[in-house]
From TrEMBL:
Positions of the Histidine kinase domain: 152-365
Keywords assigned: Kinase, Phosphoprotein, Plasmid, Transferase, Two-component regulatory system
InterPro entries: HAMP_dom (IPR003660), HATPase_C_sf (IPR036890), HATPase_dom (IPR003594), His_kinase_dom (IPR005467), HisK_dim/P_dom (IPR003661), HisK_dim/P_sf (IPR036097), Sensor_HK_Regulatory (IPR050736), Sig_transdc_His_kin-like_C (IPR004358)
Protein name: histidine kinase
GO molecular function: phosphorelay sensor kinase activity
Length: 381
């Protein structure tokens, strides 16, 4: 049975039971209220008119009972009518709310995420409508992300594929030597390979399924290794690299992943800093976390881009970044890895002055066996 008729019927049943109960109670309880008065009246009146005491008493009792029942019966249509109307009105209101929720959840189930339910009132049904709306919003964002992701992947693959076709055609027409073509093809295949590996890592990071090998690490060693790795690239571009990272307490993290994060930040800083600029890597222990900041004196990021650079495939300057080799998911991966290790990442930037990317990692003493979220770094986006 539908919700509305069931609710109405149950309300009617309650009304019927209440009326029955009222008559039964009047029948059972009322005599005990008036019996004493009837007795006293009968005593007084028997003296006056001379009829027998018992007869008058039962006569009076019967009269009172009939009067009471008549009064109850007379009030029944009005009281019953009001009760019926109220029951119908309330059942209809509740029935309508439930029907709206039913339609809303059905729309969600069918993938229509744009529908929003009215959130009138302050009861549990309004809470439920609100929660359904929140759910619809979340699902619609997920759906939008899915569509964007497919579009982005197709877009990212198009460029290397077009290049490969170009080289194949050029070789066929004898415009480039097989040697040069092989070299160029290997480069494009390398870019595609990187993209596919990045994508696979992004999906694992976003699903929270990265395999971490957490161990006790000396951050100074990691940063020194990083400095070695980047020395020639910085020298070739003419950008100075300064590192401040000595006497640091041990951290609890995955060495390869920390290096991946640092490599990403440093590669970005180098890419966006012109010759003559500086990049500074600073690591300090703050209470229970290590805070690492990579600061550059490069192009900086405009505020409207800064809020979005951690999104996958987002590039502040698409044409330039693509040519110079980034797939636009580096920061998404970096932040995901840092969060998986129990830290947080943030960015600040001044357009034309430079940017600072900072992240935290838990110190060894904090979590030798478990990963817990650490406080945010001092700068935040
Ligand atoms: N240090 C930086 N200075 C200026 N812009 C940056 C810096 N780091 C990142 N960005 C911007 O953020 C975007 C996203 O970075 P990232 O996710 O690493 O992707 P990619 O490096 O592949 O372009 C970059 O395309 C760039 O526009
Ligand atoms: Mg990058």
């Amino acid at each position: 049975m539908r919700f509305f008729p069931r609710l109405l019927l149950s309300n009617l049943l309650v009304i019927l039971l209440a009326v029955g109960g009222m008559f039964a109670a009047a029948e059972l309880l009322a005599p005990s209220f008036y019996r004493e008065h009837v007795d006293r009246m009968a005593v007084t009146m028997t003296g006056m008119v001379g009829s027998t005491h018992r007869e008058l008493r039962s006569d009076l009792e019967a009269g009172l009972r009939t009067t009471l029942n008549r009064a109850l019966l007379a009030s029944l249509p009005l009281a019953g009518g009001v009760a019926l109307l109220t029951a119908w009105w309330m059942s209809r209101g509740l029935g309508r709310s439930v029907q709206r929720l039913d339609e809303g959840s059905r729309a969600l189930a069918q993938g229509r995420y744009a529908l929003r339910l009215p959130e009138t009132g302050k009861d549990e049904l309004a809470d439920l409508a609100h929660n359904l709306n929140v759910l619809a919003g979340a699902l619609s964002r997920v759906e939008q992300g899915r569509v964007e992701l497919i579009g982005n992947v197709a877009h990212e693959l198009r460029a290397p594929l077009a290049a490969l076709r170009g080289y194949a055609d050029a070789m066929e027409d004898g415009l480039i030597t097989p040697d040069r073509a092989a070299h160029a093809i290997a480069r494009e295949v390398g870019a595609m390979d990187r993209l596919v590996r990045d994508l696979s890592l992004v999906s694992r990071v976003e699903a929270g399924r990265v395999d971490l090998h957490l161990e006790t690490l000396n951050p100074s060693d990691l940063i020194r290794a990083l400095q070695e790795r980047f020395r020639t690239s910085f020298e070739e571009k003419g950008v100075a690299l300064h590192v401040t990272a000595s006497q640091l307490p041990a951290i609890h993290a995955d060495e390869e992943r920390v290096m991946q994060v640092l490599t990403n930040l440093l590669a970005n800083a180098l890419r966006h800093t012109p010759a003559g600029g500086q990049v500074r890597v600073r690591a300090e222990a703050h209470e229970r976390v290590l805070n690492v900041a990579v600061q550059d004196t490069g192009t900086g990021i405009a505020p409207e881009h800064l809020t979005r650079i951690f999104e996958r495939f987002y590039r502040a300057d698409p044409a330039r970044s693509r040519i110079e080799g980034g797939s636009g998911v580096g920061l998404t991966i970096a932040r995901g890895l840092v969060e998986a290790m129990g830290g947080q990442m943030a960015a600040t930037s001044d357009l034309d002055r430079g940017s600072t990317f900072s992240f935290t990692l838990p110190l060894y003493t904090l979590a030798p066996h478990s990963v817990t979220p650490a406080p945010a770094p001092p700068q935040s986006a």
